[in-house]
Amino acid sequence: MDKEQIIKELIEIITPYVPEKDLIDNIDESKELINDLHINSAHIVDIVLDVEEKYDIMIDDDAIGKMNTVGESVSMILEKIKS
Amino acid sequence: MANRSVVITGLGVVASNGVGIEAFDEALRGGVSGIRRQQDMVDAQLRCHIAGRPMISDDYKHAYLSNLMFSKVKNHAVINGLLAGLEAWNHAGLTSGAEKVDDDSGIIMGSGALGLDFSTSEKMHTVENGLSRKLGSFTIPESMSSGASAFLNSILGLGNRVLSNSSACITGSEAVLLGYEHIVSGKAERMLCGSTEGDGIYIWGGFDALRVLCADSNHDPAKGSRPMSDSLGGFVPSSGAGALVLESLESAQKRGANILAEIKGGFVNSGGQRNGGSLTAPNFQAIVNCIKNTLALSKIEPGQIDLISGHLTSTPNDVNEVKCWAEGLGLSSGNFPYINTPKSMIGHSIAAAGSIELVACVLQLVNNYIHPSINCETVHPELSDILSQEKVPSKTLYKEINTVIKANFGFGDLNCCVVLQKWKG
Fold this sequence. Notes:
The structure holds 2 protein chains of 2 kinds. Chain A is mainly α. Chain A has helices at residues 3-14, 21-25, 44-55, 61-64, 70-82. Helix content of chain A is 55%, strand content 0%.
Protein backbone atom coordinates (compact mmCIF):
# COMPACT_ATOMS: atom_id res chain seq x y z
CA MET A 1 0.00 0.00 0.00
CA ASP A 2 1.59 3.31 -1.03
CA LYS A 3 1.66 6.55 0.89
CA GLU A 4 -0.59 8.42 -1.54
CA GLN A 5 -3.32 5.85 -1.10
CA ILE A 6 -3.06 6.02 2.71
CA ILE A 7 -3.34 9.82 2.60
CA LYS A 8 -6.46 9.55 0.47
CA GLU A 9 -8.01 6.98 2.76
CA LEU A 10 -7.06 8.87 5.93
CA ILE A 11 -8.74 12.01 4.59
CA GLU A 12 -11.89 9.96 3.99
CA ILE A 13 -11.75 8.75 7.58
CA ILE A 14 -11.27 12.16 9.17
CA THR A 15 -13.67 14.11 6.92
CA PRO A 16 -16.80 13.51 9.06
CA TYR A 17 -14.97 14.82 12.12
CA VAL A 18 -13.91 18.10 10.49
CA PRO A 19 -16.51 20.75 11.32
CA GLU A 20 -16.00 23.02 8.28
CA LYS A 21 -15.92 21.77 4.72
CA ASP A 22 -13.35 24.31 3.42
CA LEU A 23 -10.80 22.94 5.90
CA ILE A 24 -11.02 19.58 4.12
CA ASP A 25 -10.76 21.24 0.70
CA ASN A 26 -7.40 22.75 1.71
CA ILE A 27 -6.00 19.74 3.50
CA ASP A 28 -2.35 18.71 3.19
CA GLU A 29 0.21 16.66 5.10
CA SER A 30 1.33 19.57 7.29
CA LYS A 31 -2.11 20.19 8.79
CA GLU A 32 -2.54 19.47 12.49
CA LEU A 33 -5.70 17.48 13.27
CA ILE A 34 -6.78 19.58 16.26
CA ASN A 35 -5.28 23.02 15.68
CA ASP A 36 -5.66 23.33 11.91
CA LEU A 37 -8.58 21.05 11.09
CA HIS A 38 -10.52 21.99 14.26
CA ILE A 39 -11.27 18.38 15.11
CA ASN A 40 -12.68 18.06 18.64
CA SER A 41 -9.88 16.47 20.67
CA ALA A 42 -12.33 13.85 22.01
CA HIS A 43 -12.78 12.59 18.45
CA ILE A 44 -9.10 11.63 18.10
CA VAL A 45 -9.95 8.36 19.87
CA ASP A 46 -12.73 7.77 17.33
CA ILE A 47 -10.36 8.41 14.43
CA VAL A 48 -7.86 5.98 15.95
CA LEU A 49 -10.59 3.32 16.23
CA ASP A 50 -11.66 3.92 12.62
CA VAL A 51 -8.02 3.63 11.48
CA GLU A 52 -7.46 0.45 13.50
CA GLU A 53 -10.53 -1.12 11.95
CA LYS A 54 -9.63 -0.05 8.43
CA TYR A 55 -6.06 -1.39 8.48
CA ASP A 56 -6.44 -4.11 11.11
CA ILE A 57 -3.68 -2.60 13.20
CA MET A 58 -3.33 -1.60 16.85
CA ILE A 59 -2.31 1.95 17.74
CA ASP A 60 -1.14 2.19 21.33
CA ASP A 61 -1.38 5.30 23.53
CA ASP A 62 2.23 6.35 22.84
CA ALA A 63 1.62 6.19 19.12
CA ILE A 64 -1.57 8.28 19.42
CA GLY A 65 0.51 11.05 20.97
CA LYS A 66 2.68 11.16 17.84
CA MET A 67 -0.22 11.59 15.43
CA ASN A 68 -0.48 15.38 15.51
CA THR A 69 -0.50 16.10 11.79
CA VAL A 70 -1.96 14.36 8.75
CA GLY A 71 1.59 13.46 7.67
CA GLU A 72 2.57 12.03 11.06
CA SER A 73 -0.61 9.97 11.12
CA VAL A 74 0.11 8.54 7.68
CA SER A 75 3.67 7.64 8.75
CA MET A 76 2.30 5.93 11.86
CA ILE A 77 -0.17 3.90 9.81
CA LEU A 78 2.56 2.87 7.33
CA GLU A 79 4.87 1.85 10.18
CA LYS A 80 2.16 -0.25 11.88
CA ILE A 81 1.12 -1.93 8.63
CA LYS A 82 4.74 -2.98 7.97
CA SER A 83 5.42 -4.26 11.49
CA MET B 1 -41.79 40.40 34.92
CA ALA B 2 -44.36 38.43 36.95
CA ASN B 3 -47.03 38.85 34.32
CA ARG B 4 -45.00 37.84 31.30
CA SER B 5 -47.02 35.75 28.85
CA VAL B 6 -45.44 32.59 27.49
CA VAL B 7 -46.42 31.22 24.10
CA ILE B 8 -45.59 28.14 22.06
CA THR B 9 -44.03 28.85 18.68
CA GLY B 10 -42.65 25.50 17.52
CA LEU B 11 -43.42 21.79 17.72
CA GLY B 12 -41.47 18.63 17.02
CA VAL B 13 -42.36 14.99 17.53
CA VAL B 14 -41.12 11.46 17.01
CA ALA B 15 -43.93 9.01 17.74
CA SER B 16 -44.69 5.43 16.83
CA ASN B 17 -47.62 6.45 14.65
CA GLY B 18 -45.96 9.43 13.02
CA VAL B 19 -42.49 10.97 12.76
CA GLY B 20 -42.66 14.75 12.35
CA ILE B 21 -45.61 16.98 13.23
CA GLU B 22 -47.33 16.67 9.85
CA ALA B 23 -47.34 12.86 9.94
CA PHE B 24 -48.29 12.82 13.64
CA ASP B 25 -51.19 15.26 13.08
CA GLU B 26 -52.48 13.09 10.25
CA ALA B 27 -52.11 9.90 12.30
CA LEU B 28 -53.96 11.43 15.27
CA ARG B 29 -56.85 12.52 13.08
CA GLY B 30 -56.93 9.16 11.34
CA GLY B 31 -56.84 7.14 14.56
CA VAL B 32 -53.72 5.34 13.35
CA SER B 33 -52.10 2.88 15.74
CA GLY B 34 -48.32 2.71 15.97
CA ILE B 35 -48.34 -0.45 18.11
CA ARG B 36 -46.68 -3.51 16.58
CA ARG B 37 -45.45 -6.94 17.58
CA GLN B 38 -41.80 -6.70 18.69
CA GLN B 39 -39.55 -9.68 18.08
CA ASP B 40 -37.08 -8.73 20.83
CA MET B 41 -39.90 -8.88 23.40
CA VAL B 42 -40.95 -12.27 22.06
CA ASP B 43 -37.38 -13.59 22.15
CA ALA B 44 -36.86 -12.34 25.70
CA GLN B 45 -40.08 -14.12 26.73
CA LEU B 46 -41.74 -11.04 28.13
CA ARG B 47 -45.45 -11.41 28.86
CA CYS B 48 -46.12 -8.39 26.65
CA HIS B 49 -44.97 -8.72 23.02
CA ILE B 50 -46.24 -5.40 21.68
CA ALA B 51 -44.87 -1.88 21.74
CA GLY B 52 -44.67 1.34 19.78
CA ARG B 53 -41.38 2.14 18.07
CA PRO B 54 -41.10 5.16 15.75
CA MET B 55 -40.23 4.26 12.16
CA ILE B 56 -37.53 6.81 11.35
CA SER B 57 -36.23 6.76 7.78
CA ASP B 58 -32.58 7.43 6.99
CA ASP B 59 -33.66 10.37 4.82
CA TYR B 60 -35.44 11.93 7.79
CA LYS B 61 -32.38 11.54 10.01
CA HIS B 62 -30.08 12.92 7.30
CA ALA B 63 -32.26 16.04 7.04
CA TYR B 64 -31.43 16.98 10.66
CA LEU B 65 -28.15 15.30 11.58
CA SER B 66 -24.57 15.68 10.41
CA ASN B 67 -22.98 12.65 8.75
CA LEU B 68 -20.95 12.12 11.90
CA MET B 69 -24.00 12.04 14.19
CA PHE B 70 -25.90 9.98 11.66
CA SER B 71 -23.26 7.27 11.63
CA LYS B 72 -22.10 7.35 15.27
CA VAL B 73 -25.08 8.11 17.51
CA LYS B 74 -26.95 4.87 18.22
CA ASN B 75 -28.96 5.61 21.37
CA HIS B 76 -32.61 5.86 20.33
CA ALA B 77 -33.51 8.20 23.18
CA VAL B 78 -30.79 10.61 22.04
CA ILE B 79 -31.82 10.29 18.38
CA ASN B 80 -35.52 10.77 19.17
CA GLY B 81 -34.76 13.82 21.31
CA LEU B 82 -32.47 15.31 18.66
CA LEU B 83 -35.00 14.89 15.86
CA ALA B 84 -37.95 16.24 17.85
CA GLY B 85 -35.91 19.13 19.28
CA LEU B 86 -34.45 20.19 15.94
CA GLU B 87 -37.83 19.96 14.22
CA ALA B 88 -39.38 22.20 16.89
CA TRP B 89 -36.56 24.72 16.62
CA ASN B 90 -36.92 24.89 12.83
CA HIS B 91 -40.71 24.95 13.08
CA ALA B 92 -40.42 28.04 15.30
CA GLY B 93 -38.46 29.73 12.52
CA LEU B 94 -35.28 29.76 14.59
CA THR B 95 -31.90 29.06 13.05
CA SER B 96 -29.04 26.87 14.18
CA GLY B 97 -25.37 26.63 13.47
CA ALA B 98 -24.48 30.26 14.15
CA GLU B 99 -21.05 30.93 15.63
CA LYS B 100 -22.46 33.28 18.25
CA VAL B 101 -23.94 31.73 21.39
CA ASP B 102 -27.62 32.65 21.93
CA ASP B 103 -27.67 33.62 25.61
CA ASP B 104 -31.42 34.23 25.66
CA SER B 105 -32.33 30.64 24.76
CA GLY B 106 -31.99 27.37 26.65
CA ILE B 107 -33.03 23.73 26.62
CA ILE B 108 -34.93 21.48 29.01
CA MET B 109 -34.98 18.02 27.40
CA GLY B 110 -35.79 15.39 29.99
CA SER B 111 -35.36 11.67 29.79
CA GLY B 112 -36.41 8.55 31.65
CA ALA B 113 -34.24 5.48 31.27
CA LEU B 114 -31.99 6.97 28.59
CA GLY B 115 -28.99 4.82 29.52
CA LEU B 116 -31.10 1.65 29.36
CA ASP B 117 -31.86 2.01 25.66
CA PHE B 118 -31.21 -1.24 23.80
CA SER B 119 -28.22 0.36 22.02
CA THR B 120 -26.25 0.19 25.27
CA SER B 121 -26.25 -3.62 25.08
CA GLU B 122 -23.35 -3.68 22.60
CA LYS B 123 -21.33 -1.29 24.75
CA MET B 124 -21.88 -3.42 27.86
CA HIS B 125 -20.52 -6.46 26.02
CA THR B 126 -17.54 -4.46 24.76
CA VAL B 127 -16.59 -3.55 28.34
CA GLU B 128 -17.25 -7.04 29.68
CA ASN B 129 -14.97 -8.46 27.00
CA GLY B 130 -12.07 -6.25 28.13
CA LEU B 131 -12.32 -3.97 25.11
CA SER B 132 -13.31 -0.71 26.79
CA ARG B 133 -10.70 1.15 24.71
CA LYS B 134 -12.99 0.51 21.74
CA LEU B 135 -15.93 2.43 23.22
CA GLY B 136 -15.10 5.67 21.43
CA SER B 137 -15.92 9.20 22.48
CA PHE B 138 -19.69 8.96 22.06
CA THR B 139 -20.30 6.42 24.81
CA ILE B 140 -20.45 8.93 27.66
CA PRO B 141 -22.70 11.55 26.03
CA GLU B 142 -24.90 8.71 24.76
CA SER B 143 -25.36 7.21 28.21
CA MET B 144 -25.59 10.27 30.46
CA SER B 145 -29.15 11.27 31.32
CA SER B 146 -28.47 14.69 29.83
CA GLY B 147 -27.33 13.14 26.54
CA ALA B 148 -30.19 14.39 24.41
CA SER B 149 -29.78 17.98 25.68
CA ALA B 150 -26.04 17.83 25.22
CA PHE B 151 -26.18 16.62 21.62
CA LEU B 152 -28.96 19.12 20.83
CA ASN B 153 -26.89 22.00 22.08
CA SER B 154 -23.85 20.91 20.09
CA ILE B 155 -26.00 21.87 17.10
CA LEU B 156 -27.99 24.81 18.50
CA GLY B 157 -25.35 26.69 20.50
CA LEU B 158 -27.64 28.03 23.23
CA GLY B 159 -26.19 29.86 26.22
CA ASN B 160 -29.05 29.96 28.71
CA ARG B 161 -30.01 27.15 31.08
CA VAL B 162 -29.53 23.65 29.62
CA LEU B 163 -31.20 21.06 31.84
CA SER B 164 -32.33 17.45 31.60
CA ASN B 165 -35.02 16.71 34.13
CA SER B 166 -36.01 13.18 35.03
CA SER B 167 -39.25 12.51 36.87
CA ALA B 168 -40.71 9.30 35.43
CA CYS B 169 -43.95 9.75 33.48
CA ILE B 170 -44.33 13.47 34.28
CA THR B 171 -40.91 14.27 32.78
CA GLY B 172 -42.31 15.79 29.58
CA SER B 173 -45.00 17.99 31.07
CA GLU B 174 -42.64 18.99 33.87
CA ALA B 175 -39.99 20.03 31.32
CA VAL B 176 -42.56 22.34 29.73
CA LEU B 177 -43.67 23.72 33.09
CA LEU B 178 -40.05 24.34 34.12
CA GLY B 179 -39.40 26.15 30.83
CA TYR B 180 -42.56 28.22 31.30
CA GLU B 181 -41.50 29.22 34.82
CA HIS B 182 -37.98 30.07 33.65
CA ILE B 183 -39.33 32.43 30.99
CA VAL B 184 -41.96 33.93 33.34
CA SER B 185 -39.18 34.69 35.82
CA GLY B 186 -37.46 36.77 33.15
CA LYS B 187 -34.34 34.63 33.00
CA ALA B 188 -34.76 33.53 29.37
CA GLU B 189 -36.67 34.49 26.23
CA ARG B 190 -36.88 31.07 24.57
CA MET B 191 -36.73 27.53 25.95
CA LEU B 192 -36.73 24.36 23.88
CA CYS B 193 -38.63 21.96 26.13
CA GLY B 194 -39.48 18.31 25.78
CA SER B 195 -38.60 14.79 26.72
CA THR B 196 -37.42 11.57 25.19
CA GLU B 197 -37.42 7.83 25.78
CA GLY B 198 -35.55 5.00 24.08
CA ASP B 199 -36.73 1.45 23.63
CA GLY B 200 -36.09 -2.21 24.14
CA ILE B 201 -36.30 -5.03 26.62
CA TYR B 202 -33.98 -3.49 29.23
CA ILE B 203 -36.52 -0.71 29.80
CA TRP B 204 -39.69 -2.67 29.15
CA GLY B 205 -38.64 -5.88 30.95
CA GLY B 206 -38.88 -4.18 34.35
CA PHE B 207 -42.41 -2.95 33.66
CA ASP B 208 -43.31 -6.44 32.43
CA ALA B 209 -42.01 -7.86 35.73
CA LEU B 210 -44.29 -5.43 37.59
CA ARG B 211 -47.24 -6.97 35.66
CA VAL B 212 -48.31 -3.53 34.50
CA LEU B 213 -47.92 -4.15 30.74
CA CYS B 214 -50.69 -5.36 28.46
CA ALA B 215 -50.34 -9.11 27.93
CA ASP B 216 -53.70 -9.91 26.31
CA SER B 217 -53.19 -8.47 22.81
CA ASN B 218 -49.98 -10.07 21.57
CA HIS B 219 -51.79 -11.24 18.43
CA ASP B 220 -53.75 -8.03 17.90
CA PRO B 221 -51.29 -5.23 18.77
CA ALA B 222 -53.48 -2.27 17.76
CA LYS B 223 -56.10 -3.36 20.30
CA GLY B 224 -53.72 -3.47 23.28
CA SER B 225 -53.95 0.11 24.55
CA ARG B 226 -57.54 0.83 25.69
CA PRO B 227 -57.59 3.86 28.03
CA MET B 228 -60.87 4.43 29.93
CA SER B 229 -62.45 1.31 28.44
CA ASP B 230 -64.29 -1.51 30.15
CA SER B 231 -61.29 -3.80 29.51
CA LEU B 232 -58.36 -2.01 31.14
CA GLY B 233 -55.54 -4.51 30.97
CA GLY B 234 -52.20 -2.81 31.33
CA PHE B 235 -50.19 -0.31 29.32
CA VAL B 236 -48.44 -0.81 26.01
CA PRO B 237 -44.90 0.61 26.18
CA SER B 238 -43.46 2.82 23.49
CA SER B 239 -40.59 5.14 22.65
CA GLY B 240 -40.33 8.56 21.06
CA ALA B 241 -39.87 12.22 21.88
CA GLY B 242 -41.77 15.48 21.85
CA ALA B 243 -40.49 19.05 21.87
CA LEU B 244 -42.03 22.51 22.11
CA VAL B 245 -40.43 25.90 21.69
CA LEU B 246 -41.62 28.16 24.51
CA GLU B 247 -41.11 31.85 24.08
CA SER B 248 -41.92 35.09 25.84
CA LEU B 249 -44.73 36.88 24.06
CA GLU B 250 -42.42 39.87 23.55
CA SER B 251 -39.78 37.77 21.85
CA ALA B 252 -42.30 35.97 19.63
CA GLN B 253 -43.94 39.21 18.53
CA LYS B 254 -40.64 40.98 18.01
CA ARG B 255 -39.44 38.38 15.53
CA GLY B 256 -42.87 37.88 13.94
CA ALA B 257 -43.10 34.23 15.01
CA ASN B 258 -46.18 32.13 14.30
CA ILE B 259 -47.80 31.81 17.72
CA LEU B 260 -49.50 28.43 18.15
CA ALA B 261 -50.86 28.58 21.69
CA GLU B 262 -50.38 30.19 25.08
CA ILE B 263 -49.35 28.42 28.28
CA LYS B 264 -51.62 29.75 31.02
CA GLY B 265 -49.93 28.01 33.93
CA GLY B 266 -49.46 24.73 35.69
CA PHE B 267 -48.51 22.97 38.89
CA VAL B 268 -46.34 20.06 39.90
CA ASN B 269 -46.49 18.18 43.19
CA SER B 270 -45.99 14.84 44.91
CA GLY B 271 -48.33 12.78 47.05
CA GLY B 272 -45.39 12.17 49.35
CA GLN B 273 -45.86 8.41 48.94
CA ARG B 274 -48.35 8.63 51.79
CA ASN B 275 -52.15 8.22 52.03
CA GLY B 276 -52.29 5.56 49.34
CA GLY B 277 -49.33 6.92 47.42
CA SER B 278 -46.20 4.80 47.01
CA LEU B 279 -43.28 4.37 44.63
CA THR B 280 -45.73 3.05 42.06
CA ALA B 281 -49.20 4.24 43.13
CA PRO B 282 -50.65 7.74 43.42
CA ASN B 283 -52.02 9.58 46.42
CA PHE B 284 -55.32 10.68 44.87
CA GLN B 285 -55.76 13.73 47.07
CA ALA B 286 -52.46 15.06 45.71
CA ILE B 287 -53.72 14.60 42.13
CA VAL B 288 -56.88 16.55 42.99
CA ASN B 289 -54.77 19.27 44.62
CA CYS B 290 -52.52 19.44 41.57
CA ILE B 291 -55.53 19.95 39.29
CA LYS B 292 -57.07 22.59 41.58
CA ASN B 293 -53.82 24.51 41.95
CA THR B 294 -53.33 24.44 38.20
CA LEU B 295 -56.77 26.01 37.67
CA ALA B 296 -56.05 28.71 40.24
CA LEU B 297 -52.61 29.56 38.86
CA SER B 298 -53.90 29.57 35.28
CA LYS B 299 -56.91 31.71 36.25
CA ILE B 300 -59.18 29.27 34.41
CA GLU B 301 -62.70 28.23 35.41
CA PRO B 302 -63.47 24.52 35.00
CA GLY B 303 -66.36 25.38 32.67
CA GLN B 304 -63.91 26.91 30.19
CA ILE B 305 -62.16 23.60 29.59
CA ASP B 306 -62.96 22.07 26.20
CA LEU B 307 -60.67 19.08 26.45
CA ILE B 308 -58.85 17.09 29.11
CA SER B 309 -55.69 15.42 27.87
CA GLY B 310 -55.31 12.79 30.56
CA HIS B 311 -52.48 10.53 31.59
CA LEU B 312 -54.77 7.49 31.12
CA THR B 313 -52.37 4.63 30.53
CA SER B 314 -54.94 1.84 30.02
CA THR B 315 -54.40 0.39 33.48
CA PRO B 316 -57.06 0.13 36.23
CA ASN B 317 -55.76 3.50 37.49
CA ASP B 318 -57.61 5.19 34.63
CA VAL B 319 -60.78 4.84 36.70
CA ASN B 320 -59.21 6.62 39.67
CA GLU B 321 -57.71 9.27 37.42
CA VAL B 322 -61.07 10.20 35.88
CA LYS B 323 -62.59 10.36 39.36
CA CYS B 324 -59.79 12.75 40.35
CA TRP B 325 -60.51 14.91 37.30
CA ALA B 326 -64.18 15.03 38.26
CA GLU B 327 -63.33 16.05 41.82
CA GLY B 328 -60.56 18.46 40.88
CA LEU B 329 -62.66 20.23 38.29
CA GLY B 330 -65.94 19.90 40.17
CA LEU B 331 -67.55 18.57 36.99
CA SER B 332 -69.36 15.33 36.25
CA SER B 333 -71.83 13.82 33.82
CA GLY B 334 -73.46 16.43 31.61
CA ASN B 335 -70.83 19.12 32.06
CA PHE B 336 -67.71 16.92 32.09
CA PRO B 337 -65.40 17.96 29.21
CA TYR B 338 -64.23 15.82 26.32
CA ILE B 339 -61.30 13.66 27.36
CA ASN B 340 -58.61 11.79 25.42
CA THR B 341 -54.96 10.76 25.29
CA PRO B 342 -52.90 9.65 22.30
CA LYS B 343 -52.00 6.51 24.27
CA SER B 344 -54.75 4.45 22.59
CA MET B 345 -52.72 4.89 19.36
CA ILE B 346 -49.10 5.13 20.51
CA GLY B 347 -49.09 3.43 23.89
CA HIS B 348 -47.29 4.89 26.87
CA SER B 349 -44.00 6.55 25.93
CA ILE B 350 -43.04 6.76 29.61
CA ALA B 351 -40.81 9.85 30.09
CA ALA B 352 -41.61 11.00 26.54
CA ALA B 353 -45.38 10.76 27.08
CA GLY B 354 -45.94 14.24 28.48
CA SER B 355 -44.18 16.14 25.73
CA ILE B 356 -45.64 14.05 22.89
CA GLU B 357 -49.09 14.53 24.40
CA LEU B 358 -48.58 18.28 24.78
CA VAL B 359 -47.65 18.41 21.10
CA ALA B 360 -50.93 16.58 20.41
CA CYS B 361 -52.78 19.16 22.56
CA VAL B 362 -51.36 22.07 20.55
CA LEU B 363 -52.21 20.37 17.24
CA GLN B 364 -55.81 19.89 18.41
CA LEU B 365 -56.02 23.52 19.59
CA VAL B 366 -54.60 24.91 16.38
CA ASN B 367 -56.52 22.65 14.01
CA ASN B 368 -59.76 22.51 16.02
CA TYR B 369 -60.28 18.82 16.53
CA ILE B 370 -60.47 16.17 19.22
CA HIS B 371 -58.59 13.06 18.18
CA PRO B 372 -60.27 9.69 18.74
CA SER B 373 -59.71 7.06 21.40
CA ILE B 374 -59.48 4.04 19.16
CA ASN B 375 -60.15 1.25 21.65
CA CYS B 376 -62.86 2.59 23.92
CA GLU B 377 -66.10 1.26 22.45
CA THR B 378 -67.50 1.04 25.97
CA VAL B 379 -66.43 3.39 28.75
CA HIS B 380 -65.53 1.60 32.00
CA PRO B 381 -68.78 0.97 33.96
CA GLU B 382 -67.41 2.60 37.13
CA LEU B 383 -67.12 5.86 35.19
CA SER B 384 -70.65 5.98 33.84
CA ASP B 385 -71.70 8.59 36.43
CA ILE B 386 -68.96 10.93 35.29
CA LEU B 387 -68.32 10.15 31.70
CA SER B 388 -70.85 9.61 28.94
CA GLN B 389 -69.66 7.70 25.89
CA GLU B 390 -69.92 10.80 23.67
CA LYS B 391 -67.17 12.51 25.71
CA VAL B 392 -64.72 9.85 24.49
CA PRO B 393 -65.09 10.16 20.70
CA SER B 394 -64.16 7.08 18.67
CA LYS B 395 -63.83 9.20 15.50
CA THR B 396 -62.13 12.56 15.16
CA LEU B 397 -64.50 15.30 16.23
CA TYR B 398 -63.98 18.64 14.49
CA LYS B 399 -64.98 21.51 16.75
CA GLU B 400 -63.61 24.76 18.13
CA ILE B 401 -61.13 24.03 20.93
CA ASN B 402 -59.96 26.96 23.06
CA THR B 403 -58.71 25.54 26.35
CA VAL B 404 -56.98 22.24 27.08
CA ILE B 405 -55.85 20.95 30.47
CA LYS B 406 -53.12 18.32 30.36
CA ALA B 407 -51.82 16.13 33.16
CA ASN B 408 -49.33 13.34 33.68
CA PHE B 409 -48.80 11.19 36.75
CA GLY B 410 -45.66 9.22 37.45
CA PHE B 411 -43.86 6.66 39.56
CA GLY B 412 -42.52 8.20 42.72
CA ASP B 413 -46.02 9.64 43.32
CA LEU B 414 -45.50 12.64 41.04
CA ASN B 415 -48.15 14.80 39.38
CA CYS B 416 -47.90 17.57 36.81
CA CYS B 417 -50.68 19.57 35.19
CA VAL B 418 -50.58 22.34 32.55
CA VAL B 419 -53.21 24.53 30.87
CA LEU B 420 -52.89 25.56 27.23
CA GLN B 421 -55.10 28.07 25.47
CA LYS B 422 -55.63 29.01 21.87
CA TRP B 423 -53.73 32.15 20.94
CA LYS B 424 -56.08 34.80 19.64
CA GLY B 425 -53.62 37.68 19.51
